[in-house]
Description:
Blueprint: E1 5-10, H1 17-28, E2 37-42, H2 48-54, E3 60-64, H3 81-87, E4 91-94, H4 97-102, H5 107-120, E5 123-128, H6 132-136, H7 140-152, H8 157-160, E6 164-167, H9 181-198, H10 201-206, E7 209-212, H11 220-224, E8 231-234, H12 241-257
Helix pairs in contact: 1-12, 5-7, 7-9
The structure holds phosphoenolpyruvate.
Amino acid sequence: xxxxxxxxxxxxxxxxxxxxxxxxxxxxxxxxxxxxxxxxxxxxxxxxxxxxxxxxxxxxxxxxxxxxxxxxxxxxxxxxxxxxxxxxxxxxxxxxxxxxxxxxxxxxxxxxxxxxxxxxxxxxxxxxxxxxxxxxxxxxxxxxxxxxxxxxxxxxxxxxxxxxxxxxxxxxxxxxxxxxxxxxxxxxxxxxxxxxxxxxxxxxxxxxxxxxxxxxxxxxxxxxxxxxxxxxxxxxxxxxxxxxxxxxxxxxxxxxxxxxx
Length: 261
Ligand code: PEP
């Protein structure tokens, strides 16, 4: 079965109640076919309830940008996976490079967070990707393989069926310097090969792998048309209704054409 595309907007630490309401209202009037394309937004924690009240869940999914590795208890400031379920989230990001970079999250912590999400039935979107220096030193595949096995190692095939991945080269995030479709496809194909080796063909064929890093309305179609790219994790452009609408339209155009290069 063909993998469904997912266009996901990571709002990062941006947004007020007013701007979130405006953005969601602008998304709700767009048209896409939910059988072939899913749209999700990842607002900051304080806007999750508002977003969830504003969307129809069958049309727009809502996810959190992070989750605690701990169960509920004496962990001041943390947000447990159970709380995300309680408000109605469907997804959460883990391992975003901004968490790895600014909060020193390592693969072990990413793995612990991921397992908490699976325990409560939420779908993790696990982010992986290399730094510019690592790419320049020819280490891209090594870094991605290490992050993948660090986060996912030990999961069984059934658990893998509830996971999505996002390949986000760190040098492309928020820089306007998007990976070329060929550069992105090369890593996505490598990721699928790793999934095949560590699990099986059905995991490798079934798992959604999104691309993230400076995706906008102008470059989305060529990226999304790549065979192993199943959607986009969009940061900056997801805060601009028109840009995000353009990315959704590109996703729809590729999904309905049914051909990927
Ligand atoms: C991101 O935050 O995941 C991201 C891809 O950001 P941007 O689209 O702004 O590069």
